[in-house]
């Protein structure tokens, strides 16, 4: 028993140092810490995490899920961002996050649509997770884009969200031609096969254009 307590205290000290190096709002799992070599055992790690939660140095965001507190000068303790929670859960499940259509379209300046719910695309299973007073929804998407360059996956998901008719408009083509640089167009050219058949003619006209 004494050995367990001692290892717990030692793990707590190691965790304090590790937490101090993490940015406020960062979310991680117990598996993340074990993979980093923190904790002599799972039980010692659990003891150390509980102590830091009790001390207010960590927030428990769900089972085996923790967050470095982010404090607002007026609001106080901020809850972790849904995307960071989703990314941590995806890592634990061995799945990969994929660009969310409306977010992808927004990032490219093709849409102003905003989704109020915490919905994320993943190569893992579809489902919902209740984390405190938040519900995160995962929607399974084909792993076809999992190995794509970030810009390629973003463009494909953005056009998929717009739909065939809107994506084929001159305005969309012109916007992508002007906003994507030469390297990004080259990435699209190399991975054109990852796009749906209906989208490829649109992308070909984008990658063949010169930047302006």
Descriptive account of the structure:
With 212 residues, the protein is of the alpha+beta class. It folds into 2 domains: 2-75, Arc Repressor Mutant, subunit A (Orthogonal Bundle); 82-207, no CATH class. It is built from 10 helices and 9 strands. Strands 6-7-9-8 form a 4-stranded mixed β-sheet, with helices on one face. Strands 1-3-2 form a 3-stranded antiparallel β-sheet. A two-stranded antiparallel ribbon has the order 4-5. Helix 9 packs antiparallel against helix 10 (197-207). The model is unreliable at 1-6 (pLDDT under 50).
Brief account:
This protein has 212 residues and is an alpha+beta fold. It has 10 helices and 9 strands.
Helix content: 40-55%
Secondary structure tally: strands: 9
Mean pLDDT: 86
Radius of gyration: 22 Å
Helix-strand blueprint:
Elements: H1 2-20, E1 27-29, H2 30-35, H3 42-54, E2 59-62, E3 65-67, E4 70-72, E5 76-78, H4 82-93, E6 97-98, H5 101-107, E7 118-122, E8 127-131, E9 134-140, H6 150-162, H7 164-167, H8 170-179, H9 182-190, H10 197-207
Parallel strand pairs: 7-9
Antiparallel strand pairs: 1-3, 2-3, 4-5, 6-7, 8-9
Helix pairs in contact: 1-3, 5-6, 8-10, 9-10
Features:
212 residues, Arc Repressor Mutant, subunit A, alpha+beta, 3-stranded antiparallel beta sheet, 2 domains, 4-stranded mixed beta sheet
């Amino acid at each position: 028993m004494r050995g367990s307590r001692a290892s717990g205290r030692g793990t707590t000290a190691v965790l304090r140092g590790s937490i101090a190096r993490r940015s406020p709002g960062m979310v991680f799992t117990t598996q993340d810490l074990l993979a980093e070599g923190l904790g002599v055992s799972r039980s010692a790690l659990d003891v150390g995490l509980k102590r830091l939660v009790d001390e207010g140095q960590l927030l428990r965001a769900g089972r085996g899920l923790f967050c470095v507190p982010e404090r607002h000068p007026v609001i106080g303790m901020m809850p972790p961002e849904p995307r960071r929670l989703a990314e941590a859960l995806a890592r634990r499940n061995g799945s990969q996050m994929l660009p969310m259509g409306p977010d992808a379209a927004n990032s490219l300046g093709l849409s102003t649509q905003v989704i109020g719910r915490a919905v994320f695309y993943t190569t893992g299973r579809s489902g919902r997770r209740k984390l405190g007073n938040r519900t995160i929804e995962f929607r399974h998407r084909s792993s076809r884009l999992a190995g794509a360059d970030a810009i390629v996956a973003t463009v494909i998901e953005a056009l998929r969200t717009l739909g065939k008719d809107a994506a084929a408009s001159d305005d969309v083509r012109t916007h992508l031609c002007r906003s994507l640089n030469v390297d990004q167009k080259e990435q699209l050219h190399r991975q054109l096969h990852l796009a749906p058949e209906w989208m490829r003619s649109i992308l070909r006209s984008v990658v063949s254009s010169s930047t302006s």
